[in-house]
Amino acid sequence: MLVLNCKCFLTLIFSKSSLSDCSPGAMALGVTESPEVAQKVAFSTGREMRLAGINWAYSPVADVNSDPRNPVIGVRSYGEDPKSVASFVQAVSDGLVSAGIASCAKHFPGHGDTHVDSHLALPVITKDFVKLEETELVPFRFAITNGIPSIMTGHMALPSLITALGADSDINIPASLSKGVTKTLLREKLGFKGVVVTDCLEMNAISEGYGIGPGAVMALRAGADIVMICHLMERQLAALEATYASIEKGEIGLDFLHTSGERIRSMKDAFCGRWEDVLEKPFSIEEISNLKKENTLFSKQVYALSIRWLSRPKGDRELYISAHSDVLVLTPQVESINAAVDDPQDLIRTANGSIRNTAGPSYIAFATAIARRAPFSTHIVYSPLDAVEGSSLSETLTKSILSAHAVVFTTRNAHQASWQMVVLRRVADAIRVASQDERNKAIKLIVVASCAPYDHSLLASDDRTKDLPCLCTYEFTKPALEEAAAKIYGEELASQRRPSK
Asked: Entry's InterPro entries (predicted)?
């Protein structure tokens, strides 16, 4: 099988500006409050995957984002309400399966209540089984009941759960390597009969703590059918050698391998078909082109539905920017907050890890979309240097603010990068001081939260920013930000909803 590891349908990476036909991500779909729309997005995405020869997607994300401080899930989740997340997980699974793609719910038993990114270290979740049943396990249980083909186990420690299950001697063992989680909980208690695959063993939670070869053996002995090793062939070969050695020692039993093989074969039979069916079907460039046009139009409609004003002043016309206004667009310097999501192919970072492009292609596309509507617009990238304690905004930035009719201030997960709020408050202060002189023109200040909606709560908690209009895109993709530009100019009205519940 050929598998695609989806980041909640952002199957094309966030930062590549030439790729404009990606589909809305999980939280963007969640705020539509329409599982039917999510199912259609999954189906349309699945059709493209199928034409590309892909028949398995590591999607949907079934994590409940129960803690907004989570550094790794965020907008990859459909929201914070377990039942709502369950309905979207099922809808996306149904859409993929109907397109001929095997779906995969991840990251079992739930990665939404962690404060550590498992790409970097091993997160610890202290919840017991009762609490997990109330939140994290709800979407997985629902998906299992409805026959989801595969589930991905995650790299997180659950000491209270592991202790209660009693199948592992190490209570801090990652879920992906735990017999208690895979065999006792997932197979026996929840009754899952499909294929179990681990999250990538190259993530630091496994590679640094256990090693990829030993980790692969531990995962298989715990009951996983497939271990994922995404990147380096030498690591894949090392894992194979360790696995073969373990089989020869009798540590991995042949009975398990036969049973596991049957599960994998069953999924392949259901979604791969025969080689004859694949090879005999003519490859149609025209079919692919027409489908991409159709899906691009549909995605644009969904983006228009999902992008929301989280706050706005009374009277819509007081909000929007007029076509003849001078506009200053402020976007944050790109930071690799999550390497797996933000920069999976190392396009933003140089070989030594520094930032390659301080604006980011998606933000450049956003500024360009504003410029098409406001010929006298300026785009400035603000950075942590603008937030240094004891300093003030640069003279250049201050002049740009005061010469504009409107300032569009873009944040990106400011709840995890507090310096962005420092700069926003300084911009708001500069505008407030200027407004005290009657000779100066009024300057509008609009905030665009270009990823998670939690930035809005930061605005509401500060007197200097609480009354600012705030538009949320739920992702910093090119099409989402281009749609945000249309919203700012009142080209389409956006409804005001609570962030993601």
From this structure: GH, Glyco_hydro_3_N, Glyco_hydro_3_N_sf, NagZ_Beta-hexosaminidase
Q: Of 199, 225, 342, 343, which residue is the catalytic one?
A: 199
Verify whether residue 379 is a known catalytic residue: no
Does residue 438 have a pLDDT over 80? no
27 closest CA partner among 472, 390, 358: 472
Q: Which of 82, 179, 89, 174 is nearest to 137 (CA)?
A: 82
pTM listed for this prediction: 0.90
Identify residue 337 by its one-letter amino acid code: I
Instruction: Enumerate residues 6+ apart whose C-beta is below 8 A from 286.
Output: none
DSSP string, 356-388: S-SS-HHHHHHHHHHHHH-TTEEEEEE-GGGG-
Total residue length of the chain: 501
pLDDT band at 44 (very low <50, low <70, confident <90, very high): very high
Asked whether the beta carbons of 176 and 199 are under 8 A apart, the reply is: yes
- Is residue 377 a contact partner of residue 328, using CB atoms and an 8 Å limit? yes
Task: Please state, in angstroms and rounded to a whole number, the distance separating the CA atoms of residues 320 and 192.
Answer: 51
Query: Under 8 Å CB-to-CB from 457, ≥6 apart: which residues?
Result: 415
pLDDT at 10: 46
Write the secondary structure of 321-347 as one string of H (helix), E (strand) and C (coil).
CCCCCCEEEEEECCCCCCHHHHCCCCC
Question: For the CA atoms of 489, 492, 496, 501, what is the dihedral angle to 10 degrees?
Answer: -120
Do 56 and 102 meet the contact criterion of CB atoms below 8 Å apart?
yes
Contact 75, 122 (CB under 8 A): no
Instruction: State the Cα–Cα distance between residues 37 and 35, nearest whole angstrom.
Output: 5
Catalytic residue among 119, 155, 379, 415: 119
Which pLDDT value is given to residue 6? Answer: 66
Cα separation, 9 vs 480, whole angstroms: 13
Number of CB atoms found within 10 A of residue 83's CB? 11
Distance from C-alpha of 25 to C-alpha of 361, rounded to nearest angstrom: 18
For residue 102, what pLDDT is reported?
Answer: 98
Could you tell me if 382 and 411 are in contact, meaning their C-beta atoms sit under 8 angstroms apart?
A: no
Amino acid identity of residue 87, one-letter, is S
User: Active site includes 199?
Assistant: yes
Share of the chain above pLDDT 90, in %: 69
DSSP classification of residue 283: P
